[in-house]
């Protein structure tokens, strides 16, 4: 514990000492936390409520989470506004590291994407083929809510639309619309309007406002959803807390961190599956 004490001295000296002590105490407090830019889907799944207390107990460090789409989280890293990233767009993550913004990318866990929509499935999408489902949705001009926020989920969705032969919005049917929002708000819009949406399973399991929505497409190997963790490169931003960021990475990749991920469940169902390299 840091003790900040004063002794009798002239007023001018005391003011000078006070300024120095405040700076020292502030620096000490700042050193006890790191900033993690992560995805809205990871945060809204409730996973960090499981991980961060365990990490603090092991390290003494607080973690301040800023939940954004993966694209925005990577932008935070490029600006040096975060110490590390916990995201899920492998192509973009590898480019982030290759361009020198990140030190190294580590795979940490995975789950999967699912297509949800009205239980009666008016577009006939139900099954295990995400590409075929989107083709049917476009042909029926079915209502579809896209995050449209450059997140990892949005990037995956665009890949699936491309495979379905619909690069441009016009090819996705007249019911396609973007909300420019996180996963939770996108699901709320879909639930309130009877629309379809692509979501990660973790957020879906923690989502309570489902209304008439149900899982319609799952099990396609193309729906695999890998997460990675990256420390921001101190060679680009000298102020980042690289050593403390690495402590988090080392812990989340360790048997204790991987077990904490595996142990997180909702209604007895596991949300994420650890797969850190051995």
Describe the protein's architecture and organization.
The chain has 278 residues and is an alpha/beta fold. The protein folds into 2 domains: 33-110 and 226-274, D-Maltodextrin-Binding Protein, domain 2 (3-Layer(aba) Sandwich); 112-223, Periplasmic binding protein-like II (D-Maltodextrin-Binding Protein, domain 2), CATH 3.40.190. 42% of the residues lie in helices and 23% in strands. It has 11 helices and 12 strands. The chain has helices spanning 11-30, 40-44, 47-59, 70-79, 90-98, 130-139, 152-163, 183-193, 201-205, 242-253, 255-263, and strands at residues 33-39, 62-68, 84-87, 102-118, 144-146, 176-178, 197-200, 213-217, 224-232, 265-266, 269-270, 273-274. Strands 1, 2, 3, 4, 7, 8, 9 and 12 form an 8-stranded mixed beta sheet that branches. A hairpin with a 2-residue loop joins strand 10 (265-266) and strand 11. Helix 3 (47-59) packs across helix 10. The chain is globular, with a radius of gyration of 22 Å. The two termini are 36 Å apart.
């Amino acid at each position: 514990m840091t003790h900040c004490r004063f002794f009798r001295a002239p007023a001018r000296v005391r003011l000078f000492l006070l300024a120095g002590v405040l700076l020292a105490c502030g620096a000490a407090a700042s050193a006890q936390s790191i900033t993690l830019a992560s995805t809205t889907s990871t945060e809204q799944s409730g996973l960090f409520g499981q991980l961060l207390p365990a990490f603090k107990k092991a390290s003494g460090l607080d973690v301040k989470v800023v939940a954004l789409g993966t694209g925005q989280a990577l932008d935070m890293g490029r600006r040096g506004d975060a110490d590390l990233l916990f995201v899920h767009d492998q192509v973009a993550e590898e480019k982030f590291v290759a361009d020198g913004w990140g030190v190294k990318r580590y795979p940490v866990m995975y789950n999967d994407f699912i297509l949800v929509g009205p239980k009666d499935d008016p577009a006939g999408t139900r099954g295990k083929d995400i590409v075929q489902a989107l083709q049917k949705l476009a042909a029926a001009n079915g209502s579809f809510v896209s995050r449209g926020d450059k997140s990892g989920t949005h990037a995956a969705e665009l890949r699936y639309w491309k495979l379905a032969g619909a690069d441009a919005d016009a090819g996705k049917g007249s019911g396609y619309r973007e909300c420019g929002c996180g996963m939770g708000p996108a699901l709320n819009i879909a639930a309130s309007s009877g629309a379809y949406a692509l979501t990660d399973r973790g957020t879906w399991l923690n989502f309570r406002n489902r209304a008439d929505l149900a899982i319609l497409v799952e099990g396609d190997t193309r729906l695999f959803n890998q997460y990675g963790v990256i420390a921001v490169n101190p060679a680009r931003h000298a102020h980042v807390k690289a050593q403390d960021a690495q402590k988090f990475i080392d812990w989340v990749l360790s048997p204790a961190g991987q077990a904490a991920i595996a142990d997180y469940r909702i209604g007895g169902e596991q949300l994420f599956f650890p797969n850190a390299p051995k």
